[in-house]
Structure of DNA repair metallo-beta-lactamase domain-containing protein:
Amino acid sequence: MSAQSAATATANERVKTLTLDSTQLYLTALNSTTSTLSFPPIPSSFPPSNFIPHTRFLIDSFRHPFTAFSASYFLSHFHSDQYFGLCPSWSKGIIFCSHLTSLLLIQTLKIPPRFVFALPLNDPVLVDGCEVILIDANHCPGSVQLLFKVPTKNGIFERYVHTGDFRYCNSMKLISYLIGFVGCDAIFLDTTYCDPKCIFPSQEESIDYVVSVVGRIGKEFGKRRVLFLIATYVAGKEKILVEVARRCKTKICVDGRKMEILRVLGYGDGEVFTEDESESDVHVVGWSVLGETWPYFRPNFVIMEEVMVEKGYEKVVGFVPTGWTYEVKRNKFAVQTKDTFEIHLVPCIEHSNYDELKEYVKFLKPKKVIPTVAMDFEKLESKHADKLRKHFDGLIDEMDNKKDLLMGFHRGNCETVEKVERDANEERVMERNKNMFEIKTVESYDMDVSSNDVSYVHKPDSQDSTIPSEEERERIIEETRDSLPRWVTRDQILDLVGSSRWNIVEAVSNFYEHEIEFYEQVSVFRTFESASHASSPNSPILLSNSGHFRSSTDENVNTNLSLVSKSPSLKFTRWTNISPSKRKKNTEKRSNKKVKSNSTLESSGSKQPTITSFFSKLLPDDSKGGKTDRKY
């Protein structure tokens, strides 16, 4: 009995929404008399990009042969890097997928039908109490994006979008179900081409190019004189083939395995594709026949010559439709030639390019972006994953993350957190109306630690607070630093905690109210610094062996940041963080040099720690300027 049949009774009873229980479907598929199943906990080492939080839904993850963690498996599309691990003996759980993908699994991979369950497109289904919706991914036939609405505590739902592999297009903004996921809790994003260099042309433009080359050269040479070779996967690039056949009025020759896939997809009538080589001068070949694409394209003219001689042609023209061969040059479509051979590198991509990824994230405005393609994406907080997420800073729901941050402090005293945030907001509104913040600094390095008249600057009309001990100040600074983006300088952190009277919650709240101004400070300073180096190429770079700035650069960094701070309308009161003993040592090192009053804070040169748990943020970067380790 198939998994599809096991749900027939439930399907007949439903009014609007199909309701499924993956455990019962699985037990039915196993012909088991047991009514319940137990699974071991999903290990912490399990790739976070492959399962949905608060569920046991595993996405494109069939590679764990020894232990089954779930009965609910989802396959986004029929490409080998997604279905790797599936075989005719599969029996570890139910595979939910689109109708086309289910046919490919059953007819091509010979997966037992009882373990495959096809879900409808654009129609909500309840699986294990969670609402699941499949929408088109514009990648390959049968590919889908997966939308999950997961119930949590107190009747609250969390929403997740898993793109699988996809190519974004503007029509996706019109999908009503997807619109309902704007502001979702996280998007599991296909970051295959998440690199500013990857701004390749649209699929339509690339297809037009292939059609024009085939038409032009074919007309010039005539039939049976020039052979066209188009490299494809077993499943994929069908759009190119169909358009070449339609617009060039020719059939496309494919091998038996490709024809088997095409029959499943509905192209088995013989009008477009054929297995008879004599019927067409346009042949589909395997991906590596024309050359190697990684890490850069290396043509294989030797094989092309062998094919030409064997089949009796005078010229061979090849097409390699992939983004890995894409190079930003004067021409969008590169051509490599030798003798009577041509290879056209055509960026006809079935993944979203860099601009499209940013546009999609901007549209959905999720709380978090989880990369699904990266060198070490199994580690959600890895440097590479963190680097990928930075491309979307400013496009995610930063206010929601700010709330999470504030609630993370003093978890046992929620009322205090809310009161501090409310008071801080009221105070900031009054200060903005007055349009002034004062910056004052301690002017002397020689204050004694036991002195009773230690000077610090406070806001007008504010109550004086007791300055924390040096150890306590460092603890507050580090705790604040962990809650802010890594680009925030130490000086800026000192401004924040000083102006908020060393209240961490208020300091973090202040930052996110003025994040743009803070980032402009840093950006302008970096521009200023770059210009300074450019104008003085022989000036030494004062770096220590460890790569951190020497203390002798503190004055320059702070002076320039002070100058920068005059440009944006952001000024906070600040306390010096340098202890009396350190001031004395610094004074001796400087050999009685006079230091400007606004240069007393430490440099931001030391490395910032890794941001924790999704809170890495930057302003939007519209610059267009790699590559990940998955296929096209």
About this structure: The radius of gyration is 31 Å. The first strand starts at residue 18 and ends at 20.
